[in-house]
Amino acid sequence: MATSSPSSYWQVGKTLPECFDHVFTSGIVSDVTFLVGEEMERISAHKLVLMSRSPVFYAMLEGPIADKGDIPIPDISDETFKLFLRYLYTDSIDLTLRNVVPVLNAARKYFVDILVSHCEKFLASNLSSDNACLFLEQAHVFVMDSLKSDCLRFIDENPTAALTSEAFTDLCVSCVTSITESDDLRVTENNVYEAIIRWAEAECARQNLETTANNKREVLGETLYTVRYLHVDEEFLLGKICSDKILKPDDVVEIINHKRNKKPLISKKLMTKRRFGNPERFYRNGPVINDFWNAPVDEAISFKTDSDVHLFGFGSFFTNVTQSTVDLKVFEEDVCLVQANKTAEPSQPDTPHMGDVLLDTPIPLHAGRKYTIVECPSNPFRYYFTKGIAKVTNQHVTIEFSNSSRSRHTDTDWGQIPYLLLS
Asked: Is the pTM above the cut of 0.85?
């Protein structure tokens, strides 16, 4: 009787995972069959392997209530189920951005926690502007707190693409709120408002509601008030927001009275805190001289940054004992981005002679572009600095200052505008 040589046996020279992969692929000695996906494809497996890896399979395949005969699995595609089963046999899987979410769903369904963790780490390491909202929703549904935090942190730092993506409008209201309530979301309030309105329109469509102002307000609920309306451009507030009629008229009146007349807020829903946390002060001044500066004229300084940051405002010396009112302009190259009248108020106990001039909305600054701040006080300044610093580094961001032709006296060596507020 002829016998095969040892080298012809499929087990020879293979590791345990390789042998199990062959057993799964060939289907030899299989003892359970699944009908998978819409096409009910027959996929064979081995009870011992499945029960040893999953408590759900153990309950399905063992004991008095075990399933008999072929087992239908209609909610997982045949491609995903094969990939999932092969992992149970071999402890190995080739995850991609296309298959990771369906594999994660299968791993959660069958309580294969080690594969859930593997998928979660893969998602976190492959976050992008295109998928951050999709992964956030998955993390929310499956209570993956670590991944959810990673997604929110990524969106905070890369908000524009995420807020304008189609996936943002597909989020549940809880996930939308978790994004828009963040103090660290690096985007203007105008953008946040436009994003939640896009989401509200999509949600109305999902609920078969007319896209009226009342319905959009209803589906948004408290999410409507995650916009920091006190820091929205007034032109945008009186134009876009008022014309949408989603924010209630009483809220608009209260916001305007607070912005223009400093009246205290009544509504607890209106958030006063700015985003981005506390901006850093980039000081460029040397010793401060207590002496009257020149007559009120334009004082300016130009600068470039080596990183993309946001300008919250700048420092100003006082024209009287406690404050200074200035007209300001901010230019990008020769284009005026902002023109306003602002009051500087004391901000640091150790510098009682200067205060912050805060913009209504932070301005995004792009690395390598030249920006210029111009201020003109209503009265002569009481202070100025000497021995200025031309290059300042703080928190790994470098600002390089230069003289501006728009300035009457101030330059890199002395004068006004002692610091910038950046985040």
From this structure: no
